[in-house]
Amino acid sequence: MTELLEGFAVHHTGSTASEAPVLVLVHGLGGAASTWAPLVPHLATDHRLIVVELPGHGIGPAIDSAQMSPRALGARLHRLTATLANRQGRTVHLVGHSLGGWICLEAAAEPGARDTIASVTAFTPAGLWTTPRRRPPLLPTGQQFARLAGRFPSGLVTTRIGRTLALGATSTAPRRLPAEVVRAAVRSIAAAPGYAGADAGIASGAFTRGGAVLVPVTVVTGLRDRVLPPSFVVRACAPPQTHWLEWEDCGHVPVWDRPADCATVVRDRLRTA
Fold it and tell me: Which of 13, 25, 189, 232 could form a disulfide with 30 if both were Cys (CB 3.0 to 4.6 A apart)?
């Protein structure tokens, strides 16, 4: 089932058991529900999965770019968790990647968040910096690059060379990714009308409310992350109770490089939350 709530496209999948924990999955810049495809099979049998698409991403309706800052999106996500928690009769667990991780942290920093949010797991989250990492002005954006890739013959992007060119900056093993994951990633980035607004929001700020987050938090960083290198992450910007994991042989999208390990981290977070 898919519905529109708080400006997000909300996809329901996974277990329908009443006792199953509720996970809300939030993708990163230019992503879509398909970002989580390698992870979903590891969690779907015993978790209710609510896969969120940001405004102007996937089938999420576009909104004014001024409302695309991580903090504004975090407030929307907090309101969404209130709706979901009321429906499910329990608090929900947030799982985010990159921009999605930052948005999850912002949601957990909202007043009253403990009433609706049980924990946060953030894979290579953006925002944990003192100086935003800005793209050099002459370097194409990820969306411009994806649109260029979309002009090539349809089969090229899924060749070994094509996968490396398309996703080599975000994955340590792009040649092992399923062809559909590669195609979906390129399509979602190229087509996202909310990309520019979200990109501007990332570049203009930082996560500054770590002390307001009262729920358990896990952050995973990839030691081979070329988008947000671990040296750029400032641990003091995260909530003080954050449990940190650094993974060898992992790039910017852990759910692509190590999906089974990501599932284990989520399960461990739920167990200790």
Answer: 189
Element (H, E) at 187: helix 179-191
Reported confidence tier of residue 146, pLDDT bands at 50, 70, 90: confident
Distance of alpha carbon 99 from alpha carbon 49, whole angstroms: 19
pLDDT in tens, 69-84: 999 999 999 999 999 9
Closest among 164, 145, 183, 226 to 35, alpha carbons compared: 183
A 10 A CB-CB count for 51 gives: 27
Measured in degrees and rounded to the nearest 5, phi and psi for residue 22 equal -105, 120
- What digits encode the pLDDT tens for the residues 248-268? 999 999 999 999 999 999 999
Stated pTM of the model: 0.94
Separation CA 137–CA 139 (nearest Å):
6
Q: Which residues of 137-172 are buried (b: 16+ CB within 10 A; e: fewer)?
A: eeeeebbebbeebeeeeeeebbeeebbebbbeebbb
